[in-house]
Design brief:
This protein has 11 helices and no strands. Helix 2 (25-34) packs across helix 3 (40-53) and helix 8 (115-125) packs across helix 11 (168-181). The chain folds into 2 domains: 3-16 and 131-198, Orthogonal Bundle (Endonuclease Iii, domain 2); 25-125, Hypothetical protein, domain 2 (Endonuclease III, domain 1), CATH 1.10.340.30. With 204 residues, the protein is mostly helical.
C-alpha cells in the first residue's frame, strides 16, 4: 500500500487533527486517562468541566475526591479514575515539580497510564514522534491489511516499521476520527470512505 497516498487522503479528510486543549500536557494526560473505555464525545466535555474547576496538579491534589467524581461522573469507571487523577497529581508534585514528564518510562510509572496513554501525551503534548494505538487504530490497521496483529502493543511496533517517523504522531487522531465516523466496527461506511479503493476490507 502507498503510505504517503494513504496519509495524504487522511490529512485532506481531517485537516484539523488536533482537538482543542491539547497544548497543556496535564490536560492531555488526565483527559486520556479519563478516556479509557469511554467515548470521546463523553470524555472531552467531562475533562473540560473538570479543568474549569481544577486545572493544575496543585489544585487536583487538594480537591475533595467527591467533587472530582461529580465533575467526571459521565465517564466510565469515574470513581476509579477520580482516584487515579488524585494519585497522578500527587506523584507529579512529589517527583516532577508538578510537571508532566516527557519520556515513556516515567509516564508508564503513573497509575492508569499504559503505552497508548503515554504515546498520546508524547505525541500531542510534546509533539514527539510517538505512535499511539487504541482500539480504532488497531482495528483499522488490520482491516486495511497494514498489519496482522492480535494486540494494540504489537500493532504499534508493526506500524512503526511501515510508516515514516514523520507520520507517527498523526496516526492516532486521524484513524480515530476515521473509525468513529466511517470505518466503524459494525457496518463500516465503505462507499463514502476516502480509502475504499485502497482497502482490502479484511474483516475479522
Amino acid at each position: 500500500m502507498d503510505i504517503d497516498k494513504l496519509m495524504q487522503r487522511l490529512f485532506e479528510l481531517y485537516p484539523e487533527d488536533s482537538p482543542d486543549g491539547f497544548a497543556d500536557p496535564f490536560f492531555v494526560l488526565i483527559s486520556t486517562v479519563m478516556s479509557h473505555r469511554t467515548r470521546d464525545d463523553v470524555t472531552y466535555p467531562a475533562a473540560k468541566k473538570l479543568f474549569k474547576r481544577f486545572s493544575t496538579p496543585e489544585e487536583m491534589v487538594i480537591a475533595d475526591i467527591s467533587e472530582i467524581e461529580a465533575l467526571i461522573k459521565d465517564v466510565g469507571f469515574y470513581r476509579v479514575k477520580a482516584g487515579r487523577i488524585k494519585e497522578i497529581s500527587r506523584i507529579l508534585l512529589e517527583k516532577y515539580n508538578g510537571r508532566v514528564p516527557d519520556d515513556m518510562e516515567a509516564l508508564l510509572e503513573l497509575p492508569g497510564v499504559g503505552r497508548k496513554t503515554a504515546n498520546c501525551v508524547l505525541a500531542h503534548a510534546f509533539l514527539k514522534d510517538a505512535l499511539a494505538v487504541d482500539t480504532h487504530v488497531h482495528r483499522i490497521s488490520n482491516r486495511l491489511g497494514l498489519v496482522e496483529t492480535k494486540a494494540p502493543e504489537e500493532t504499534e511496533m508493526e506500524l512503526k516499521k511501515i510508516f515514516p517517523q514523520k507520520y507517527w504522531r498523526h496516526i492516532n487522531l486521524l484513524l480515530v476520527k476515521l473509525g468513529q465516523n466511517i470505518c466503524r466496527p459494525i457496518s463500516p461506511r465503505c462507499k463514502i470512505c476516502t480509502l475504499d479503493d485502497m482497502c482490502p476490507k479484511i474483516i475479522h
